[in-house]
Amino acid sequence: MTDEQFEMYAAFGIKRDTAEFCEKIADGLQSRFEAIDRTAEYNQLKVIHAMQENHVGEACLYSSTGYGYNDIGRETLEKVYASVFHTEDALVRPQITCGTHALGVALAGNLRPGDEMASVVGKPYDTLEEVIGIRPSRGSLAEYGVSYSQVDLLEDESFDYDGIRELLKHEKLKLITIQRSKGYQTRHTLSVAEIGELIHFIKGIRPDVICMVDNCYGEFVERIEPSDVGADMVVGSLIKNPGGGLAPSGGYIAGTSACVESAAYYLTTPGLGKEVGATIGMNAPFFQGFFLAPTVTASALKSAIFAANVYEKLGFKTVPDSTEGRHDIIQSVTFGKPEGVIAFCQGIQAASPVDSYVTPEPWPMPGYDSNVIMAAGNFVQGSSIELSADGPIKPPYAVYFQGGLTWPHGKLGVIMSLQRVIDAGLVTL
Length: 429
Hints:
- By secondary structure, the chain is an alpha/beta fold.
- It has helices at residues 3-10, 16-27, 30-53, 72-85, 99-110, 126-132, 161-167, 192-205, 257-267, 283-313, 338-350, 407-423, and strands at 89-93, 116-119, 147-150, 173-179, 210-214, 233-237, 251-255, 317-319, 331-334, 372-375, 388-392, 398-402.
- The longest helix has 31 residues, at 283-313.
- 51% of the residues are buried.
């Protein structure tokens, strides 16, 4: 590291031994970064081809108001998403407020009173518990007569095919949800290939059961998506990977025409569905964000791999570990004590371009069953494709790090987090 380069890190309060320790690790990751760039190139060409194929023009960048009838930009964008995900249709709307909302719309739109839904990869993400009714909540699916079953992963984190086979005997089973990412767990993220094997097994026994994949944090990490291996619906948030850091809100549901139509009727109202929904200035950032998404996702992946290598070398458990392949952008680091989670998050916040002077603290965030700390000094509130970190303040006291619109920012965030962990007396170099 040159003196000039170190001077910039020193301006952030980073000590030379910390910076040099991390720089040596970064230098050893170049071959892995080149592989990530090759995947990003493939996915970038896929997006450009879809935009050209669907005749994206200047008129598509304008937006509608009021009812939003005949919004050519909205309609074309949804065709682009369907082309990229290789699905029959897609719903891409600013009215979808977040990933949890997108999942809730997909579930409620495709389930009816008396139906049963199930997760076959263990407990879903915390915020879905109240949507489903695992934790009682007003307006949950359980209140509308939808029952829930769950098959956990086996101890080695493989699928419990015997348990799933028994589940598929339930006559009222209508929908199975598969969460690709780990959520606030320390299990591995499911690869698209693993998801494909699971869906093939389910469809071989019950082809009528809808398979929905929570694709949050996974888009463009691989060259194929769950919809390429049999998923009836893939669902995600635009303030994660596919928004490319430019989408200020929104979510998507891509899948079969029937599933997307049912979701659209729930999002708006029966009889209107996809025909309404003003885009109010969102079309341009939605298109441009999707265009940038493959390379932005690549930056986030580099940041995650860098974090894994830094913290694993210091003796902390990381999931994925420093050498594993990647299937989403999330990196967990287990500290075993709350002080580690807090120090890490405060380092990420201090490296942010927005609100760097704010000190995050744990708080009872809505939708979670424990205090949660979140660091996200971002241009878009809660945007987890931007550099961010969060975690529940409960055992095993793991932090979940993700994002980074650029690799240099992701690198700074990881180094800053380590400096805060060192300053807190939790590790020495």
